[in-house]
Design brief:
The structure holds 2 protein chains of 2 kinds. By secondary structure, chain A is α+β, with helices and mostly antiparallel strands. Helices cover about 40% and strands about 30% of the residues of chain A. The longest helix of chain B has 16 residues. At the A-B interface, helix 2 and helix 3 of A face helix 1 and helix 2 of B.
């Protein structure tokens, strides 16, 4: 199934991280991800968005569900370029959950933190 | 600290717990965690904090320790 993509933009304040988690969880439930996968996605999303918070810019979060996986991308807007220790730890948490986690550079967006959860 | 009703915790929340433990350690106090929820136990394990905190499945287990 290709369900298209989903995106949300939230203000760069910690109080809205729950909205980001709920958004990813909703899409994950839509594609019938397991509860464990949903919990892992919520944690990784929270860590990624917390890294992005330091940019001070609205946090854009995109989710791309496919037949085999659910991919999440969080725009960093320069956050994480010279990451403090906490950001390194956050990235380690994400990589522990999703080993394919990586920071990519998109032509129009810049640095993006990407990770994907296998669905089957 | 009873995390039994905590619906979600990430590095930020764990950081607060670590700070609280440090402050208690400085005055000779002790801190244990109660956690039985899968995601909570998982993030404690991923971050290695399950080796830093004593983690119990229930308050009764803490009291009996």
């Amino acid at each position: 199934m290709s369900a298209g993509s989903f995106r949300i933009e939230i203000p760069a304040v910690p109080e809205h991280l729950g909205t980001a988690r709920a958004f990813v969880a909703a899409v994950a439930h839509e594609v019938e991800a397991s509860e464990e996968t949903v919990a892992d996605l919520k944690l990784a999303t929270s860590e990624a968005c917390t890294i992005a918070l330091s940019s001070g810019q609205p946090i854009r979060l995109r989710v791309f569900p496919t037949e085999a996986a659910l991919e999440v991308r969080v725009d960093l807007h320069g956050a994480g370029d010279g990451p403090p220790d906490e950001d390194v730890e956050r990235r380690e948490v994400i990589a522990s959950l999703f080993p394919d986690a990586a920071i990519l550079t998109e032509p129009d967006t810049g640095a993006v933190l990407r990770f994907s959860a296998p669905l089957r | 600290m009873n995390l039994g009703d905590v619906g979600f915790i990430d590095s930020s929340g764990l950081g607060v717990l670590v700070q609280a433990k440090k402050q208690l350690d400085e005055v000779g106090g002790e801190m244990a965690l109660v956690a039985h929820d899968g995601p909570t136990l998982k993030v404690l394990a991923i971050t290695g904090l399950d080796k830093v905190f004593r983690v119990y499945p229930s308050v009764e287990d803490v009291l009996a320790s």
